[in-house]
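Figure 3 (text version): C-alpha coordinates given as input.
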Protein backbone atom coordinates (compact mmCIF):
# COMPACT_ATOMS: atom_id res chain seq x y z
CA UNK A 1 0.00 0.00 0.00
CA UNK A 2 3.02 2.30 0.47
CA UNK A 3 5.69 2.94 -2.12
CA UNK A 4 9.12 4.56 -2.08
CA UNK A 5 12.61 4.35 -3.51
CA UNK A 6 14.49 1.86 -1.32
CA UNK A 7 17.19 3.29 0.93
CA UNK A 8 20.12 1.17 2.15
CA UNK A 9 19.21 -0.36 5.54
CA UNK A 10 20.80 1.56 8.38
CA UNK A 11 23.36 0.10 10.77
CA UNK A 12 23.81 2.80 13.38
CA UNK A 13 23.86 3.43 17.10
CA UNK A 14 21.94 6.44 18.37
CA UNK A 15 23.82 7.31 21.53
CA UNK A 16 22.48 9.10 24.61
CA UNK A 17 19.21 10.51 23.25
CA UNK A 18 16.14 11.11 25.38
CA UNK A 19 13.85 8.45 23.95
CA UNK A 20 10.17 9.34 24.11
CA UNK A 21 7.42 7.09 22.79
CA UNK A 22 3.97 7.51 24.37
CA UNK A 23 2.79 4.14 23.06
CA UNK A 24 5.61 2.00 24.41
CA UNK A 25 6.06 4.08 27.56
CA UNK A 26 9.69 4.98 26.93
CA UNK A 27 10.67 8.32 28.42
CA UNK A 28 14.33 8.33 29.43
CA UNK A 29 17.87 8.73 28.17
CA UNK A 30 18.85 5.59 26.25
CA UNK A 31 20.87 4.22 23.37
CA UNK A 32 19.11 2.67 20.38
CA UNK A 33 20.95 0.28 18.07
CA UNK A 34 19.67 -0.24 14.55
CA UNK A 35 20.85 -3.24 12.53
CA UNK A 36 19.75 -3.97 9.00
CA UNK A 37 17.12 -1.27 9.22
CA UNK A 38 15.44 -2.72 12.32
CA UNK A 39 15.58 -1.68 15.96
CA UNK A 40 17.86 -4.35 17.40
CA UNK A 41 18.52 -3.15 20.94
CA UNK A 42 17.40 -0.44 23.37
CA UNK A 43 19.32 0.20 26.56
CA UNK A 44 22.00 2.12 28.39
CA UNK A 45 25.68 2.15 27.46
CA UNK A 46 25.34 0.06 24.33
CA UNK A 47 28.53 -0.67 22.41
CA UNK A 48 28.79 0.68 18.87
CA UNK A 49 31.26 -1.79 17.45
CA UNK A 50 32.15 -0.72 13.93
CA UNK A 51 28.83 0.98 13.05
CA UNK A 52 28.16 4.70 12.67
CA UNK A 53 27.28 6.55 15.87
CA UNK A 54 24.66 9.29 15.82
CA UNK A 55 25.13 11.69 18.71
CA UNK A 56 21.86 11.91 20.63
CA UNK A 57 23.20 13.92 23.56
CA UNK A 58 20.85 16.80 24.29
CA UNK A 59 18.43 15.56 21.67
CA UNK A 60 15.14 13.67 21.67
CA UNK A 61 14.36 10.51 19.73
CA UNK A 62 10.72 10.02 18.75
CA UNK A 63 8.84 7.53 16.62
CA UNK A 64 8.65 8.99 13.12
CA UNK A 65 5.64 11.10 12.22
CA UNK A 66 2.92 10.10 9.75
CA UNK A 67 0.89 12.66 7.79
CA UNK A 68 -2.45 11.48 6.35
CA UNK A 69 -3.04 14.71 4.43
CA UNK A 70 -0.44 15.92 1.91
CA UNK A 71 -0.74 17.45 -1.55
CA UNK A 72 2.16 16.29 -3.72
CA UNK A 73 0.73 17.87 -6.91
CA UNK A 74 1.56 14.78 -8.97
CA UNK A 75 0.43 14.26 -11.69
CA UNK A 76 0.13 17.48 -13.64
CA UNK A 77 1.28 20.24 -11.27
CA UNK A 78 4.94 19.41 -10.88
CA UNK A 79 5.88 23.10 -11.03
CA UNK A 80 4.52 23.29 -7.45
CA UNK A 81 5.86 20.00 -6.05
CA UNK A 82 6.81 16.50 -7.11
CA UNK A 83 7.35 13.16 -5.45
CA UNK A 84 11.05 13.72 -4.85
CA UNK A 85 10.79 17.25 -3.41
CA UNK A 86 7.60 16.56 -1.48
CA UNK A 87 8.98 13.50 0.25
CA UNK A 88 12.29 15.25 0.86
CA UNK A 89 10.33 18.04 2.55
CA UNK A 90 8.47 15.46 4.61
CA UNK A 91 11.69 13.76 5.70
CA UNK A 92 13.08 17.14 6.75
CA UNK A 93 10.06 17.54 9.00
CA UNK A 94 10.50 14.16 10.65
CA UNK A 95 7.82 12.31 8.68
CA UNK A 96 8.40 8.67 7.82
CA UNK A 97 5.23 8.17 5.76
CA UNK A 98 2.68 10.43 4.10
CA UNK A 99 -0.62 10.06 2.28
CA UNK A 100 -1.13 12.01 -0.95
CA UNK A 101 -4.46 13.54 -1.93
CA UNK A 102 -6.03 12.95 -5.37
CA UNK A 103 -6.93 16.53 -6.44
CA UNK A 104 -4.32 16.55 -9.17
CA UNK A 105 -4.36 17.05 -12.96
CA UNK A 106 -5.76 14.62 -13.92
CA UNK A 107 -7.55 13.54 -10.77
CA UNK A 108 -6.51 10.22 -9.28
CA UNK A 109 -9.83 8.62 -10.18
CA UNK A 110 -8.88 5.53 -12.18
CA UNK A 111 -6.72 2.44 -11.82
CA UNK A 112 -4.26 3.37 -14.61
CA UNK A 113 -3.51 6.75 -13.01
CA UNK A 114 -3.03 5.19 -9.59
CA UNK A 115 -0.78 2.45 -10.95
CA UNK A 116 1.36 5.05 -12.71
CA UNK A 117 1.65 7.09 -9.52
CA UNK A 118 2.72 4.10 -7.49
CA UNK A 119 5.36 3.20 -10.06
CA UNK A 120 6.65 6.77 -9.98
CA UNK A 121 6.79 6.71 -6.18
CA UNK A 122 8.92 3.58 -6.30
CA UNK A 123 11.40 5.56 -8.41
CA UNK A 124 11.30 8.98 -6.78
CA UNK A 125 9.86 9.00 -3.25
CA UNK A 126 12.39 9.28 -0.42
CA UNK A 127 9.93 8.01 2.17
CA UNK A 128 6.92 5.68 1.89
CA UNK A 129 3.89 7.29 0.25
CA UNK A 130 0.30 6.09 0.20
CA UNK A 131 -2.40 7.42 -2.08
CA UNK A 132 -6.06 8.27 -1.71
CA UNK A 133 -8.27 8.11 -4.79
CA UNK A 134 -11.19 10.41 -5.42
CA UNK A 135 -14.76 9.60 -4.42
CA UNK A 136 -16.15 11.06 -7.64
CA UNK A 137 -14.73 11.24 -11.14
CA UNK A 138 -12.85 14.44 -11.75
CA UNK A 139 -13.94 15.67 -8.30
CA UNK A 140 -17.14 16.75 -10.06
CA UNK A 141 -19.38 15.33 -7.35
CA UNK A 142 -21.60 13.54 -9.83
CA UNK A 143 -20.36 10.06 -10.78
CA UNK A 144 -18.64 7.72 -8.35
CA UNK A 145 -15.28 6.17 -9.08
CA UNK A 146 -14.73 2.42 -9.27
CA UNK A 147 -13.92 2.06 -5.58
CA UNK A 148 -13.35 -1.70 -5.62
CA UNK A 149 -10.89 -1.53 -8.52
CA UNK A 150 -9.03 1.40 -6.95
CA UNK A 151 -8.72 -0.45 -3.65
CA UNK A 152 -7.33 -3.47 -5.48
CA UNK A 153 -4.76 -1.15 -7.05
CA UNK A 154 -3.64 0.04 -3.62
CA UNK A 155 -5.71 3.11 -2.74
CA UNK A 156 -5.76 3.57 1.03
CA UNK A 157 -9.16 5.21 0.77
CA UNK A 158 -11.11 7.96 -0.89
CA UNK A 159 -11.59 11.71 -0.75
CA UNK A 160 -12.66 14.61 -2.94
CA UNK A 161 -10.40 16.86 -0.86
CA UNK A 162 -10.28 20.40 -2.13
CA UNK A 163 -14.00 20.10 -2.70
CA UNK A 164 -16.86 18.90 -0.50
CA UNK A 165 -19.17 16.04 -1.39
CA UNK A 166 -22.21 18.26 -1.78
CA UNK A 167 -24.53 15.49 -2.94
CA UNK A 168 -25.63 13.59 0.16
CA UNK A 169 -26.73 10.64 -1.96
CA UNK A 170 -23.21 10.25 -3.35
CA UNK A 171 -21.73 10.12 0.14
CA UNK A 172 -24.33 7.61 1.26
CA UNK A 173 -23.52 5.37 -1.69
CA UNK A 174 -19.78 5.70 -1.02
CA UNK A 175 -20.32 4.59 2.57
CA UNK A 176 -22.33 1.61 1.36
CA UNK A 177 -19.47 0.59 -0.92
CA UNK A 178 -17.02 1.17 1.91
CA UNK A 179 -18.58 -1.78 3.74
CA UNK A 180 -17.57 -3.98 0.82
CA UNK A 181 -14.14 -2.63 -0.09
CA UNK A 182 -12.89 -0.96 3.11
CA UNK A 183 -10.65 2.08 3.23
CA UNK A 184 -11.03 5.48 4.80
CA UNK A 185 -13.48 8.05 3.44
CA UNK A 186 -11.99 11.47 4.17
CA UNK A 187 -14.07 14.61 3.79
CA UNK A 188 -13.35 18.25 3.06
CA UNK A 189 -16.30 19.88 4.81
CA UNK A 190 -17.49 23.13 3.28
CA UNK A 191 -20.99 24.10 2.20
CA UNK A 192 -20.35 26.19 -0.92
CA UNK A 193 -23.69 27.93 -0.58
CA UNK A 194 -22.36 29.37 2.69
CA UNK A 195 -18.67 29.82 1.90
CA UNK A 196 -19.38 31.46 -1.45
CA UNK A 197 -16.44 33.49 -2.71
CA UNK A 198 -14.96 34.02 0.73
CA UNK A 199 -11.21 34.42 1.06
CA UNK A 200 -10.77 34.41 4.86
CA UNK A 201 -12.73 33.74 8.03
CA UNK A 202 -15.99 35.66 8.29
CA UNK A 203 -15.84 37.86 11.36
CA UNK A 204 -14.65 41.13 12.79
CA UNK A 205 -11.31 40.99 10.99
CA UNK A 206 -12.78 40.28 7.55
CA UNK A 207 -15.26 43.12 8.03
CA UNK A 208 -12.45 45.48 9.03
CA UNK A 209 -10.42 44.48 5.96
CA UNK A 210 -13.39 44.57 3.63
CA UNK A 211 -12.80 40.99 2.48
CA UNK A 212 -15.44 38.37 1.77
CA UNK A 213 -15.64 35.88 4.61
CA UNK A 214 -16.13 32.13 5.01
CA UNK A 215 -18.38 31.47 8.03
CA UNK A 216 -17.50 28.67 10.42
CA UNK A 217 -20.97 27.17 9.93
CA UNK A 218 -20.04 26.35 6.34
CA UNK A 219 -17.85 23.65 7.89
CA UNK A 220 -19.83 22.54 10.92
CA UNK A 221 -23.20 22.15 9.19
CA UNK A 222 -21.79 19.77 6.58
CA UNK A 223 -20.00 17.77 9.27
CA UNK A 224 -23.31 17.38 11.09
CA UNK A 225 -25.00 16.15 7.90
CA UNK A 226 -22.23 13.69 7.08
CA UNK A 227 -22.06 12.38 10.64
CA UNK A 228 -25.78 11.63 10.42
CA UNK A 229 -25.29 9.76 7.13
CA UNK A 230 -22.37 7.80 8.57
CA UNK A 231 -24.43 6.87 11.62
CA UNK A 232 -27.34 5.73 9.47
CA UNK A 233 -25.14 3.61 7.21
CA UNK A 234 -22.78 2.38 9.90
CA UNK A 235 -19.89 3.79 7.89
CA UNK A 236 -16.62 5.39 8.94
CA UNK A 237 -15.67 8.93 7.99
CA UNK A 238 -12.65 11.10 8.63
CA UNK A 239 -13.01 14.88 8.74
CA UNK A 240 -10.09 16.77 7.27
CA UNK A 241 -8.48 20.03 8.48
CA UNK A 242 -10.91 20.95 11.29
CA UNK A 243 -10.91 24.70 11.93
CA UNK A 244 -13.96 25.82 13.93
CA UNK A 245 -15.25 25.56 17.48
CA UNK A 246 -18.69 24.52 16.23
CA UNK A 247 -17.09 21.67 14.29
CA UNK A 248 -15.35 20.35 17.39
CA UNK A 249 -18.68 20.40 19.21
CA UNK A 250 -20.44 18.52 16.40
CA UNK A 251 -17.76 15.82 16.30
CA UNK A 252 -17.73 15.42 20.08
CA UNK A 253 -21.49 14.91 20.03
CA UNK A 254 -21.26 12.45 17.14
CA UNK A 255 -18.61 10.40 18.91
CA UNK A 256 -20.77 10.33 22.03
CA UNK A 257 -23.56 8.86 19.89
CA UNK A 258 -21.28 6.11 18.64
CA UNK A 259 -20.66 7.47 15.15
CA UNK A 260 -17.46 6.13 13.58
CA UNK A 261 -15.91 9.52 12.98
CA UNK A 262 -12.34 10.74 13.28
CA UNK A 263 -10.79 14.09 12.51
CA UNK A 264 -7.56 16.05 12.17
CA UNK A 265 -6.30 19.55 12.89
CA UNK A 266 -3.44 21.34 11.15
CA UNK A 267 -0.54 23.19 12.80
CA UNK A 268 -1.53 26.54 11.29
CA UNK A 269 -5.05 26.35 12.73
CA UNK A 270 -3.58 25.40 16.11
CA UNK A 271 -1.11 28.28 16.26
CA UNK A 272 -2.40 31.19 14.15
CA UNK A 273 -5.63 33.20 13.89
CA UNK A 274 -7.25 35.59 11.44
CA UNK A 275 -5.52 38.44 13.27
CA UNK A 276 -2.33 37.32 11.50
CA UNK A 277 -4.01 38.19 8.20
CA UNK A 278 -4.83 41.65 9.53
CA UNK A 279 -1.18 42.30 10.38
CA UNK A 280 -0.21 41.87 6.76
CA UNK A 281 -2.20 40.67 3.77
CA UNK A 282 0.28 37.88 3.20
CA UNK A 283 -1.05 35.31 0.75
CA UNK A 284 0.90 32.61 2.57
CA UNK A 285 -1.78 33.02 5.25
CA UNK A 286 -4.58 32.28 2.81
CA UNK A 287 -5.78 28.70 3.10
CA UNK A 288 -9.00 26.71 3.11
CA UNK A 289 -10.39 26.35 5.68
CA UNK A 290 -9.16 29.78 6.73
CA UNK A 291 -7.42 30.84 9.89
CA UNK A 292 -10.21 31.55 12.35
CA UNK A 293 -10.54 33.22 15.75
CA UNK A 294 -8.74 32.71 19.05
CA UNK A 295 -11.90 31.04 20.34
CA UNK A 296 -11.72 28.53 17.50
CA UNK A 297 -8.00 27.95 18.06
CA UNK A 298 -8.51 27.22 21.74
CA UNK A 299 -11.34 24.80 20.91
CA UNK A 300 -9.01 22.87 18.59
CA UNK A 301 -6.32 22.68 21.26
CA UNK A 302 -8.82 21.42 23.82
CA UNK A 303 -10.14 18.93 21.26
CA UNK A 304 -6.68 17.43 20.92
CA UNK A 305 -6.29 17.23 24.68
CA UNK A 306 -9.62 15.52 25.33
CA UNK A 307 -9.42 13.16 22.36
CA UNK A 308 -12.12 14.68 20.19
CA UNK A 309 -9.46 15.43 17.56
CA UNK A 310 -7.52 12.31 16.67
CA UNK A 311 -4.40 13.53 14.93
CA UNK A 312 -2.38 16.44 13.58
CA UNK A 313 -2.05 16.61 9.78
CA UNK A 314 -0.36 19.32 7.77
CA UNK A 315 -2.58 19.73 4.68
CA UNK A 316 0.73 20.57 2.96
CA UNK A 317 -0.43 22.54 -0.11
CA UNK A 318 2.43 23.94 -2.22
CA UNK A 319 1.98 26.70 -4.79
CA UNK A 320 4.53 28.34 -7.09
CA UNK A 321 5.81 31.78 -6.09
CA UNK A 322 4.18 33.58 -9.00
CA UNK A 323 0.82 32.05 -8.10
CA UNK A 324 0.97 33.50 -4.60
CA UNK A 325 2.53 36.87 -5.52
CA UNK A 326 -0.81 38.39 -6.51
CA UNK A 327 -3.48 40.37 -4.61
CA UNK A 328 -4.85 38.45 -1.62
CA UNK A 329 -8.28 37.91 -3.17
CA UNK A 330 -6.78 36.33 -6.29
CA UNK A 331 -4.22 34.02 -4.68
CA UNK A 332 -4.85 30.27 -4.46
CA UNK A 333 -5.61 28.73 -1.09
CA UNK A 334 -2.92 26.74 0.67
CA UNK A 335 0.26 26.69 2.74
CA UNK A 336 3.16 24.28 2.92
CA UNK A 337 3.72 22.68 6.31
CA UNK A 338 5.71 19.46 6.30
CA UNK A 339 9.00 21.03 7.37
CA UNK A 340 7.46 23.11 10.16
CA UNK A 341 4.72 20.91 11.63
CA UNK A 342 6.47 19.71 14.77
CA UNK A 343 8.37 22.93 15.44
CA UNK A 344 5.31 25.15 15.00
CA UNK A 345 3.24 23.21 17.51
CA UNK A 346 6.14 22.73 19.93
CA UNK A 347 7.11 26.41 19.85
CA UNK A 348 3.52 27.48 20.53
CA UNK A 349 3.66 25.57 23.86
CA UNK A 350 0.03 24.49 23.55
CA UNK A 351 0.34 20.74 24.13
CA UNK A 352 2.50 18.43 26.27
CA UNK A 353 5.45 17.06 24.30
CA UNK A 354 4.23 13.46 24.55
CA UNK A 355 0.83 14.46 23.19
CA UNK A 356 2.41 16.25 20.22
CA UNK A 357 4.29 13.07 19.36
CA UNK A 358 1.19 10.94 19.83
CA UNK A 359 -0.95 13.13 17.58
CA UNK A 360 1.73 13.39 14.88
CA UNK A 361 1.91 9.60 14.66
CA UNK A 362 -1.80 8.79 15.13
CA UNK A 363 -2.63 9.45 11.49
CA UNK A 364 -1.13 6.09 10.56
CA UNK A 365 -3.87 4.01 12.14
CA UNK A 366 -6.59 6.18 10.62
CA UNK A 367 -5.56 5.07 7.13
CA UNK A 368 -4.88 1.47 8.11
CA UNK A 369 -1.12 1.70 8.54
CA UNK A 370 0.94 0.46 11.50
CA UNK A 371 1.80 3.24 13.93
CA UNK A 372 5.56 3.77 14.28
CA UNK A 373 6.90 2.61 17.63
CA UNK A 374 10.30 2.49 19.28
CA UNK A 375 10.46 -1.21 20.08
CA UNK A 376 12.89 -4.04 19.41
CA UNK A 377 12.05 -5.86 16.22
CA UNK A 378 10.21 -2.96 14.62
CA UNK A 379 11.40 -1.28 11.45
CA UNK A 380 13.40 1.84 12.24
CA UNK A 381 10.95 4.72 11.72
CA UNK A 382 12.51 7.40 13.88
CA UNK A 383 13.20 11.10 14.11
CA UNK A 384 16.00 12.71 16.13
CA UNK A 385 15.18 16.30 17.11
CA UNK A 386 17.10 19.03 18.91
CA UNK A 387 14.38 20.73 20.95
CA UNK A 388 16.66 23.59 21.92
CA UNK A 389 17.66 24.56 18.40
CA UNK A 390 16.11 27.80 17.17
CA UNK A 391 15.79 28.52 13.48
CA UNK A 392 14.17 31.00 11.15
CA UNK A 393 11.73 29.38 8.76
CA UNK A 394 12.89 29.81 5.19
CA UNK A 395 16.17 31.53 6.04
CA UNK A 396 18.16 28.81 4.29
CA UNK A 397 15.44 27.85 1.83
CA UNK A 398 13.11 24.88 1.82
CA UNK A 399 13.36 21.26 0.78
CA UNK A 400 9.95 21.69 -0.82
CA UNK A 401 9.81 23.05 -4.35
CA UNK A 402 7.46 25.80 -3.12
CA UNK A 403 7.97 28.54 -0.53
CA UNK A 404 4.40 29.43 0.47
CA UNK A 405 4.85 28.53 4.14
CA UNK A 406 2.63 30.49 6.53
CA UNK A 407 5.41 30.35 9.13
CA UNK A 408 7.99 31.87 6.77
CA UNK A 409 10.21 34.37 8.58
CA UNK A 410 9.13 33.22 12.04
CA UNK A 411 11.57 31.80 14.57
CA UNK A 412 10.72 28.31 15.78
CA UNK A 413 12.24 25.88 18.27
CA UNK A 414 12.85 22.22 17.55
CA UNK A 415 15.00 21.20 14.59
CA UNK A 416 15.03 17.81 12.94
CA UNK A 417 18.56 16.40 12.98
CA UNK A 418 18.04 12.98 11.42
CA UNK A 419 15.08 11.05 10.03
CA UNK A 420 15.10 7.29 9.53
CA UNK A 421 12.22 5.88 7.48
CA UNK A 422 11.54 2.26 6.57
CA UNK A 423 14.91 1.39 8.06
CA UNK A 424 17.05 3.82 6.07
CA UNK A 425 18.48 7.27 6.80
CA UNK A 426 16.48 9.64 4.60
CA UNK A 427 17.41 13.03 6.04
CA UNK A 428 20.30 14.63 7.87
CA UNK A 429 20.39 18.23 9.02
CA UNK A 430 22.03 20.45 6.42
CA UNK A 431 25.20 20.98 8.44
CA UNK A 432 25.71 17.21 8.48
CA UNK A 433 26.69 15.04 5.54
CA UNK A 434 24.07 14.93 2.82
CA UNK A 435 22.03 11.78 2.31
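Below: residues designed for each position.
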Amino acid sequence: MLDHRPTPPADVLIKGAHVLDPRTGLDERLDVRIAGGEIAEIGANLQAGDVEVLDGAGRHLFPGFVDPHVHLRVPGQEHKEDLETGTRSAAAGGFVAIVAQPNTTPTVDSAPILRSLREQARRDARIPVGFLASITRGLAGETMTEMAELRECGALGFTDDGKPVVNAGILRKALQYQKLVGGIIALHEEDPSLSGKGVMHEGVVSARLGLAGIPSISESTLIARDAAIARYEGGRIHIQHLSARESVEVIAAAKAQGVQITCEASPHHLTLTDEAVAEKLDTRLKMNPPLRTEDDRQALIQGLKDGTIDCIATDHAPHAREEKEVPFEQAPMGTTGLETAFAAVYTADILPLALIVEKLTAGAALVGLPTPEIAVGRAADLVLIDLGAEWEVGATGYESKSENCCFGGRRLRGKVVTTIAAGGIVYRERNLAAV
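The mean pLDDT is 98.
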